[in-house]
Specification:
The protein is an alpha/beta fold and about 475 residues long. The chain has a single domain, classed as Leucine-rich repeat, LRR (right-handed beta-alpha superhelix). It has 5 helices and 35 strands. The strands form 5 sheets. It has an 18-stranded mixed sheet. The N and C termini lie far apart (about 115 Å). The structure holds 2-acetamido-2-deoxy-beta-D-glucopyranose (12 copies). It comes from Salvia divinorum. Its main location: membrane. Its EC number is 2.7.11.1.
């Protein structure tokens, strides 16, 4: 009797894990079967039934129960569909099939994996909708990375209903449309959210502002409309905020000053109106500020001069007016300044010489007057100087000849820049493009231009140059065309 009882006990306790172990093997073999091309022959060489699945390349098992806990087949050169049998790997915590060439849908069975914490299917050709269960009902899930696929459909309106641990949701570069569900606020531990480069429409839900742990909010390149909810600017943990390339309108919320951790702010290419809030000066961590291609008016706030970490400032293609505040040129960390295509007036601030890291200064198509300050010669990192279409007068400062790295020098269509060109300027050996057309430059064209061996184009027409034509080599055609007009 005891023997029989023991025997039954033994059978019960040992057979259950064995059966589950077989289930895992069946699931992996079904997965292997659905692979049409195994470019790196990893599965063909390693996934063999005479060895334990726990020894198969890309498979990890739990130490005690020998059940599959992680599959990492990233960048294995696999083509085919993702088998629904993966949903039978009940102990799976991490699934990474990124950077292969999977096609077809993400199987709904994945949402049965209630221990799953990480799922990465990025950089494949998955299509169809994201299984509803994955976005609504996976209580252990922390990370979803589905970037760079062809996923379509809409996000479920009850997303985040039971995904309380979700920290990362990356859906960048897919074809998902419809509204961003308001229920997204229920993912209250969300830290990184990217819905960029999709077809989302409607307003940005105010409820996103309740995601108080967000560090990345990236929803650029969609069809979003309406105002930027000021609630977003309440998320003081934000480090990267990308809302560019939508159809957002209204003004920039003024409660910007909460965003003390913000490093990058991209609101470019929208239809934002009104002023650039002066509170922007409080974003002391800011490195990149891009507000270009909007309908912003008023002055450039002088408080931008308080952004002591700023590296790139792009306010181009707006309707900004008034003088350029000299405070901006005090920000010595700046590498890129784009203020072109506005209605800026006044003269170029002479404290340019602080900008020792500046690589690009573009002030083109404004109404800037006065002369080009000689301090431009202190910009030893400068690669590109574009002052086209302004109302500048006076000579090109000979100090420009100190800007050894300069590749582009453009001052066309100022009408009244005048005087001779100093030979030191044309001595710059990295010059690729020189455009000085439509001004009043005079004297001889410095022969030193023949040292500019990288020159691709030179435009000198509509000036008052005299004397011999230097040997432009292959470029002579440009000069002749230029000279004929
Ligand atoms: C498993 O089978 C393959 C061929 O099917 C063979 O090459 C390999 O040596 C076998 N491995 C073991 C451990 O028996
Ligand atoms: C999978 O392996 C790749 C390459 O070894 C690694 O970069 C990646 O972090 C791994 N994925 C997971 C989820 O551990
Ligand atoms: C595993 O999953 C498949 C497809 O989802 C299902 O048809 C099958 O019954 C499952 N097998 C086991 C042993 O649970
Ligand atoms: C992925 O598969 C498609 C269709 O089979 C094929 O056209 C494409 O070249 C593949 N891409 C890569 C990166 O292997
Ligand atoms: C997806 O498919 C397209 C064409 O069908 C192919 O050009 C591309 O390389 C594929 N992408 C990946 C990541 O395999
Ligand atoms: C959520 O998942 C659990 C466990 O996987 C399942 O029992 C339940 O039916 C699911 N609920 C919904 C609403 O899908
Ligand atoms: C969301 O944030 C708003 C404003 O801070 C607050 O009034 C509201 O109670 C929050 N909602 C939830 C569900 O936490
Ligand atoms: C921003 O946060 C403050 C303080 O927590 C709160 O009073 C205010 O309602 C919030 N504003 C928005 C638009 O959520
Ligand atoms: C801005 O609005 C105009 C007129 O409504 C529209 O034609 C344009 O596409 C909009 N631009 C953006 C970037 O949304
Ligand atoms: C901003 O800079 C001005 C000088 O340009 C200075 O007076 C002011 O104290 C600064 N504000 C902050 C908050 O640093
Ligand atoms: C703007 O600049 C011009 C020329 O540099 C100067 O005469 C004028 O006073 C400035 N205006 C303001 C408001 O600073
Ligand atoms: C600017 O350059 C001039 C001469 O090239 C030099 O005397 C001056 O000290 C420089 N200024 C700065 C701030 O480096």
């Amino acid at each position: 009797m005891l023997l029989i009882a023991l025997n039954i006990f033994f059978t019960l306790t040992s057979s259950a894990p064995l059966a589950d172990f077989a289930t895992d093997q069946d699931a992996l073999l079904a997965f292997k079967n659905a692979i049409t091309v195994d470019s790196n022959v990893v599965l063909s060489n390693s996934w063999l039934t005479n060895t334990s699945i726990c020894d198969w390349v890309g498979v990890s098992c739990g130490i005690k129960h020998h059940r599959v806990t992680a599959l990492n087949l990233s960048n294995f050169g696999l083509h085919g569909n993702l088998s629904p049998h993966l949903g039978n790997l009940t102990f799976l915590q991490s699934l990474d099939v990124s950077s292969n060439n999977f096609t077809g849908v993400l199987p709904t069975e994945l949402s049965k994996l209630h221990r799953l914490k990480h799922v990465n299917a990025a950089s494949n050709n998955f299509s169809g909708e994201i299984p509803r269960g994955i976005l609504t009902n996976m209580s252990a899930l922390e990370e979803i990375v589905f970037n760079y696929n062809k996923l379509s459909g809409q996000l479920p309106i009850d997303m985040c209903n039971n995904t309380p641990k979700l920290k990362t949701l990356f859906l960048k570069e897919n074809q998902i449309h419809g509204k961003i569900p308001t229920s997204i606020y229920k993912c209250s531990e969300m830290e990184e959210l990217s819905l960029s480069v999709n077809q989302f429409s409607g307003n940005i839900p105010t409820e996103i502002g309740n995601l108080s742990m967000l560090t990345i909010l990236s929803i650029y390149d969609n069809h979003l409309q309406g105002n930027i909810p000021s609630s977003i600017f309440n998320i003081s943990s934000l480090e990267l905020l990308y809302l560019g390339r939508n159809s957002l309108s209204g003004s920039i919320p003024t409660n910007l000053d909460n965003l003390v951790n913000l490093k990058e702010l991209y609101l470019n290419t929208n239809n934002l109106t009104d002023w650039v809030p002066k509170q922007i000066g409080q974003l002391t961590s800011l490195k990149y500020l891009s507000l270009h291609e909007n309908i912003l008016t008023g002055h450039i706030p002088k408080q931008i001069g308080n952004l002591s970490a700023l590296q790139a400032l792009d306010l181009s293609s707006n309707k900004l007016a008034g003088n350029i505040s000299s405070s901006i040129f005090n920000v010595s960390s700046l590498r890129f300044i784009y203020l072109g295509n506005n209605n800026l007036s006044g003269s170029i601030p002479v404290n340019l010489d602080n900008l020792l890291n500046l690589q690009v200064l573009s002030l083109k198509s404004n109404n800037i007057i006065g002369s080009i300050p000689k301090q431009v010669g202190n910009l030893t990192s400068l690669l590109l100087l574009d002052l086209a279409y302004n109302k500048l007068t006076g000579e090109l400062p000979k100090e420009l000849g100190n800007v050894a790295e300069l590749e582009l020098l453009a001052t066309p269509f100022n009408d009244f820049l005048s005087g001779p060109i100093h030979f030191s300027i044309f001595n710059l050996s990295n010059l690729k493009i020189v455009d000085l057309q439509q001004n009043h430059f005079s004297g001889e064209i410095p022969i030193s231009i023949t040292n500019a061996s990288q020159l691709i184009a030179i435009e000198l027409n509509r000036n008052s140059f005299t004397g011999p034509i230097p040997d432009f080599g292959a470029l002579s055609i440009f000069y002749e065309e230029a000279n004929s007009s």
